[in-house]
Design brief:
This protein is α/β, with parallel strands linked by helices and 303 residues long. 52% of the residues lie in helices and 15% in strands. Helix 7 (116-129) packs across helix 8 (150-166), helix 7 (116-129) crosses helix 9 and helix 8 (150-166) packs parallel to helix 10 (199-216). The model has no long low-confidence stretch (mean pLDDT 88).
Length: 303
């Protein structure tokens, strides 16, 4: 099976990696590629700074579902809003639900309970997939989650199991157990790891691969190496261009060195994407999505 077909067959794709390597841009590019394949896709973001809309030329979502392109939607999600909605659904008396939501006990529970907010995000994704989300939720085939960076991304995926162990009863305990089974199901949930061919991003990628194996018995569908410098031009050098060309050569040597180091630690599918000379915006997302789709269709999945 081609890697693109593998990703398109999933219900949830979690995109994670070190901050600053283009993780959100990669998530947007993947969403665009999947929508072109006819898969109705929701791009889900949990960063309160909300940046995905800039890549899709739509207004900030403010927590709502925003249609970006045919078959592609985007939403910035507040975990607290999801938890509050679960309470409202369970307590049908408005006065009682308001009283509970405003109580110090509930506030402390939400802020202190380990893994609860992560479970809220994943639970929302699952509800959207199953057509059970509140509000004007679109009908989608899968969700692409722009997850927190590196170690926090692994913690998010491990959170349902933790919650299920600590909270045995009630809606949150039930949600934790259901999500733990969903995350462990390789036919429904996949992980895409974004990195750059630089020393720190590659080191974090290697550590993340090990952490996924240790904590979740999972491995990524692929490692995507973003923003690779092109091979320097061959031939005669002009004196006025020497400084720029030397910098270019050095950066590419760093890329090659780190690609070799990554290859020593990861023998699974690896996708390489070129550095794009484009400003952050819809043109970058669209151009990268075509390059990503071509690369995914050229790679074979190992699942």
């Amino acid at each position: 099976m081609k890697l693109m077909d593998r990703l398109a067959a999933l219900k949830l794709v979690v995109v994670t990696g070190k901050g600053g390597v283009g993780k959100s841009t990669l998530a947007a590019a993947l969403g665009l590629a999947l929508a072109r394949r006819g898969r109705r896709t929701l791009l889900l973001e949990i960063d309160p700074r909300e940046s995905l809309y800039q890549l899709l030329d739509v207004p900030p979502t403010g927590g709502q579902f925003e249609r970006a392109f045919e078959g592609l939607y985007v939403q910035n999600l507040s975990p607290r809003a999801v938890l509050d909605q679960v309470v409202r659904e369970r307590i049908h008396v408005e006065l009682l639900s308001k009283r509970l939501l405003s109580s110090p006990i509930y506030e402390h529970f939400v802020e202190a309970a380990p893994g609860l907010k992560e479970v809220a995000v994943l639970g929302h994704a699952l509800r959207v997939i199953r057509g059970l989300a509140a509000g004007q939720a679109p009908e989608v085939d899968l969700v692409v989650l722009d997850a927190p960076a590196t170690g926090h991304g692994v913690s998010m995926l491990a959170a349902p199991g933790l919650v299920a162990e600590v909270i045995h009863d009630g809606p949150f305990g039930q949600m934790g157990g259901e999500l733990a089974a969903f995350i462990s199901d390789r036919e429904q949930c996949g992980i895409l790891l974004a990195t750059a061919a630089e020393e720190m991003p590659v080191q974090e990628a290697i550590e993340l691969i090990d952490s996924l194996a240790d904590r979740l018995s999972r491995r990524p569908e692929a490692v995507v190496v973003n923003a690779l410098y092109p091979e320097p031009p061959a031939g005669d050098r002009h004196a006025e261009a020497d400084r720029t060309l030397d910098l270019w050569i050095r950066r590419r040597r760093v890329n090659d060195r780190e690609l070799d180091r990554l290859a020593g630690a990861w023998q699974g599918p690896r996708v390489e994407l070129p550095l794009m000379r484009l400003d952050r915006g819809v043109e970058l997302a669209q151009t990268l999505s075509h390059a990503l789709q071509d690369a995914l269709e050229a790679q074979t999945s190992w699942n």
